[in-house]
Specification:
174 residues; alpha/beta; 6 strands; binds adenosine-5'-diphosphate; Macro_dom; Macro_dom-like; EC 3.1.1.106; O-acetyl-ADP-ribose deacetylase activity; O-acetyl-ADP-ribose deacetylase
Length: 174
């Protein structure tokens, strides 16, 4: 079976998937943006489990339970802080997507949703970030047919447009 890739506009904390990905910081102890929203929705048990993980390096990922979220698991990955582009940011961003998918497959998960990692507080430009996200996921799922669905959960119309373009979808307006 081939994996379905789709982009949606929405709040990642509301998604009923096997795992949602958190754009965490290296402490894994919570922060602003999507990280704050995920911790608020999951409840204090998530922070307790994260505390035991003792952090995560940029480009790596860790998996925890989803607690009060509809998602069964949270995969925490630490995106690169944008520093002009010559600091391996693109490579590290691709690694976040790959490592998150690798963890999902090892845990036997079938569906996963990503936020637009690094494009908020961390300042990675949205257009190249969307291209890297889609390309890295497409390359990974080519040899991971057990994954049924990968969702790109966009928090803005602009991000949704960029992902639809990167996915080569027709934008239909009704
Ligand atoms: P980073 O520190 O990796 O840049 P941010 O949380 O600041 O992470 O932003 C990453 C992306 O997540 C941004 O596109 C932001 O708009 C988006 N975002 C924020 N809250 C949510 C949410 N509840 N669901 C999905 N995406 C969100």
């Amino acid at each position: 079976m081939t994996t379905k890739l789709r982009a949606i506009h929405g709040d990642i904390t509301s998604l009923n998937v096997d795992a949602i990905v958190n754009a965490a910081n290296s402490s894994l102890l919570g922060g602003g943006g999507v990280d704050g929203a995920i911790h608020r929705a999951a409840g204090p048990e998530l922070r307790q489990e994260c505390q035991r993980l003792q952090g995560c390096n940029t480009g790596e990922a860790r998996i925890t339970g989803g607690y009060r979220l509809p998602a069964k698991h949270v995969i925490h990955t630490v995106g690169p802080v944008w520093n002009g582009g010559a600091d391996r940011e693109a490579e590290l961003l691709a690694s976040c997507y790959r490592e998150s998918l690798r963890l999902a497959v090892s845990a036997g998960l079938r569906s996963i949703a990503f936020p637009c990692i690094s494009t908020g507080i961390y300042g990675f430009p949205a257009e190249p970030a969307a291209r890297i996200a889609v390309q890295t996921v497409q390359e990974f799922v080519a040899s991971a047919p057990e994954l049924e669905e990968v969702v790109f959960c966009c928090f803005s119309d602009e991000d949704l447009r960029l992902y639809q373009h990167a996915l080569g979808e027709q934008i239909v307006r009704g």
